[in-house]
Design a protein that fits this description.
single chain; alpha/beta; seven-stranded mixed beta sheet; three-stranded parallel beta sheet; 18 strands; globular; binds pyridoxal-5'-phosphate
Length: 401
């Protein structure tokens, strides 16, 4: 058995590298491969380095060079974790572009229906309608994500996909949703704009669907200094189409095969995100500490605390409570110097731009109730302990009018 033991940092998998590995296989022996930090630094500017590692490992696998690959650690990340996902990830200009281009790349357009939660941010829905397809809203469950139990009733012969949103940083019920998508032959697109690092079971959000769409807008848990997004997919055909779509519809310069757009991830943003990615786990841990303090400290019968899904972690992009007299509660907090935000006050089916879909108030009562009752308490990296305490004390001091 050939064992390929890799370590350290690498340049791209190039032909010479593959030949070396093939020779190792012929010798039936171990091969230890590594490159210097200088080569790594040269590559760093040009590549998404993690991806290049995966490319290389996948090529090694595909070529049947190694029966077993032993790679220990890569930039502090257990390589096993990287290898579990045979994925392609590439940047686009924004989260909305990631979603819109994914819908387009899946061939979804006029006459098609896409199932989408009724309580999401408008961008999720815009990605569907921008392609001429029709959003079919489904109510959320009590974790604010697509209610799996209501999906099947919304499926028609025109349904092509389910667009799931891991809203506020918590995964939707992905076991049921994946099962339904598979049973009905539907494509699955994940809106991971708010869920970087969130898992369902052992699997990261973004790794369940045909396409996982990320936003790196500055306020996101992993935020750039400007607009940025990415798509992750394990479908090689889809990846190829998406790469063309984001680049004027061309694979080769001036050879425009399909109608594309310009949706680049700016390199400065990419460099920044690459560095910040290494801190994501710490940023999430800090949010978890704030959330834990809120969950144990807030005790007010007028306030409903967010529910946590079993078998999933929450990365707390937002800490969203519900209360019946939301507007006066928000004013009370503002009066005490605490700024809060409503995510989101108007459900997409009632947005002015979607009047043409013919929905009316009362069509999606769960989403409509949420739009009237949700409030996001302060939750940000760098929040001081005394600030968290002050929020808790002030919330507990609120008396319903
Ligand atoms: C759930 C959701 N989907 C999509 C988007 C769109 O991302 P972007 O602002 O990067 O276009 C956002 C963020 O704004 C979002 O919160």
């Amino acid at each position: 058995m050939t064992k390929v033991i890799t370590y350290g940092t690498y340049d791209m998998l190039h032909r010479g590298h593959i030949r070396l590995l093939q020779r190792a296989k012929a010798m039936g022996d171990y091969l230890i491969v590594g490159v210097t930090a200088e080569a790594f630094d040269r590559a760093r500017g040009k590549l998404n380095v993690k991806q290049s590692t995966m490319d290389r490992v996948m090529a090694v696998k595909a070529l049947g060079i190694a029966d077993q690959i032993i790679i220990e650690e890569y930039e502090g990340q257990k390589i096993d974790d990287i290898l579990r996902y045979d994925v392609d990830i590439f940047g686009v200009g924004s989260g909305l572009d990631a979603l819109t281009l994914s819908v387009r790349a899946l061939g979804i357009g006029a006459g098609d229906e896409v199932i989408v939660p009724a309580n999401t941010y408008i961008a999720t829905v815009l990605a569907i309608t921008a392609n001429g397809a029709t959003p079919v809203f489904v109510e959320p469950d009590d974790c604010f994500t697509l209610d799996a139990a209501r999906i099947e009733a919304a499926i028609t012969p025109k349904t092509k996909a389910i667009m799931v949103v891991h809203l506020y940083g918590q995964a939707a019920k992905m076991d049921d949703i994946c099962r339904i998508a598979k049973a009905h032959g539907l494509r699955l697109i994940e809106d991971c704009a708010q869920s970087h690092g969130a898992k369902f079971g052992d699997t990261m959000t973004g790794a369940f669907g045909d396409a996982g769409c990320f936003s790196f807008y500055p306020t996101k848990n992993l935020g750039a200094f400007g607009d940025a997004g990415a798509v992750v997919t394990d479908d090689a055909e889809l990846a190829k189409t998406l790469r063309m779509l984001r680049n004027y519809g061309s694979e080769k310069k001036y050879h425009n095969k399909i109608l594309g757009v310009n949706s680049r991830l700016d390199e400065l943003q990419a460099a920044l995100l690459h560095t910040k990615l290494g801190h994501l786990a710490d940023l999430i841990a800090e949010r978890e500490r704030i959330a834990a303090a809120y969950l144990s400290g807030i005790q007010n019968p007028a306030i409903r605390l967010p529910k946590q899904r079993e078998n999933a972690n929450h990365v707390w992009h937002q800490f969203v409570i519900e209360t019946e007299d939301r507007d006066s509660f928000q004013q009370y907090l503002a009066g005490h110097g605490i700024q809060t935000v409503i995510h989101y006050p108007i459900p997409p089916h009632l947005a002015e731009c979607y009047h043409y879909l013919g929905h009316k108030e009362g069509d999606y009562p769960v989403a409509e109730r949420m739009a009237k009752s949700v409030l996001s308490l302060p939750m940000f990296n760098g929040m001081k302990e005394e600030e968290v305490r002050y929020v808790i004390e002030t919330v507990n001091g609120y008396e319903k009018a």
